[in-house]
Amino acid sequence: MELGPPGGSGPAEPGPRLRGLRGADAAASASSLSRFGAEAGCRAPAVAAVLPAGGSGERMGVPTPKQFCPILERPLISYTLQALERVSWIKDIIVAVTRENMETMKGIIQRYQHKRISLVEAGVTRHRSIFNGLKALAEDQPNCRLSKPEVVIIHDAVRPFVEEDVLLKVVTAAQEHGASGAIRPLVSTVISPSADSCLDHSLERARYRASEMPQAFLFDVIYDAYQQCSDYDLEFGTECLHLALKYSHIKAKLVEGSPDLWKVTYKRDLYAAESIIKERISQKVCVVMDTKEDEEHVGHCLEEMLKTELNHVKVTSGQDLQQIILEQCYNFVCVNVMTSDFEETQRLLNMVEESNLSILYPVVVISEEQKLRESLRQGTTIISALIKERNSGLIGQLLVA
After folding, report:
1. 11 falls in which pLDDT band (50, 70, 90)?
2. Are the CB atoms for 215 and 181 separated by under 8 Å?
3. What is the pLDDT, as a whole number, of residue 395?
4. Does the pLDDT of residue 93 top 70, yes or no?
5. Rounded distance, CA 82 to CA 164, Å?
């Protein structure tokens, strides 16, 4: 088993984010599972996640396995890892990759500073890859930092838009029922063809649901099920909930999932995923300023005006650059009122660029002189236009003299 970088928290959303949750966001994430556990009259379980990522992407029709296909110049699997890393109560994330892609995966972990990731070799089928991930968690060897969790999440490496609330629902349901999975309404009617390719019968769509990911299980339930699997199950099966039912006699609790749980399968799905990521980038702006005490500070004025002009966009402000860059901010507006000292603003630009995520961050830098107050409205309009453009490659300086 190969280990990724040791412990720590990771990015907040599937989509651009630098590192981990801090401050209020971290506290909220860390307490969410404990709160649900308390409401259910039980303690919060230890949770790990397994991601099978050994697929070849044959249906996508491209030479690169789909989990490594770039979206905004970043591998798809990196966004999925971010989605799980943002959840502080997920202790370990096990990724099963093929031997030939092991070094590629290590490079992704290093470049994008992923935390709590361990790598295992994938099997030749999806179920064998999942089984390898479960075995890594079950071993609990003295020299391995992994320990057996109470609940394990199984998720697809190519479903990057899973949110914490869905993860929390399936984990909570699994803790109570033994197994749980996300479902969505069927989009198309399912029909059964006859041997001569004529319609035999169709299913009543309203009575059925599509099984999605994530799914969660009491670890002993799903591990015991996999240990009892036949070779046929491991070779041709795909549904983990069915294994829990067949071998552990556990009826999974089904949880309604969000529309974003779809799986990137075909080449066109890459463009849809890129569109969603760009949309999320455009939803947050942070105004960085060198003081928070002065309510008349131009940065506070700018913040209020941006809130007015950028509808449906969360606009926040802050002072500590290191703290801000760790928070969930996708667009940065820096206001430097000390024109003789550009050091703090330059630090932000350097941190974004050195993170290798700079292509995802629209950044506008304002070096303010006295005249800026008089032209604030114009400056705000320019900033609003730049952010509304959702240009994922914008890194630059807007100098208002």
Report:
1. very low
2. yes
3. 36
4. yes
5. 11
User: What pTM, to 2 d.p., does this model score?
Assistant: 0.74
What SS3 string covers the chain?
CEECCCCCCCCCCCCCCCCCCCHHHHHHHHHHHHHHHHHCCCCCCCEEEEEECCCCCHHHCCCCCHHHCEECCEEHHHHHHHHHHCCCCEEEEEEEECHHHHHHHHHHHHHCCCCCEEEEECCCCHHHHHHHHHHHHHHCCCCCCCCCCCEEEECCCCCCCCCHHHHHHHHHHHHHHCEEEEEEECCCCCEEECCCCCEEEECCHHHCEEEEEEEEEEHHHHHHHHHHCCHHHHHHCCCHHHHHHHHHCCCCEEEECCHHHCCCCCHHHHHHHHHHHHHHHCCEEEEECCCCCCCCCHHHHHHHHHHHHCCCCEEEEECCHHHHHHCCCCEEEEEECCCCCCHHHHHHHHHHHHCCCHHHCCEEEEECCCHHHHCHHHHHHHHHHHHHHCCCCCECCECCC
Residue 306, exposed/middle/buried by CB under 10 A (0-12, 13-18, 19+)? buried
Q: Cis (ω within 30 of 0) for the bond into 70?
A: no
**86 or 286: which leads in pLDDT:** 86
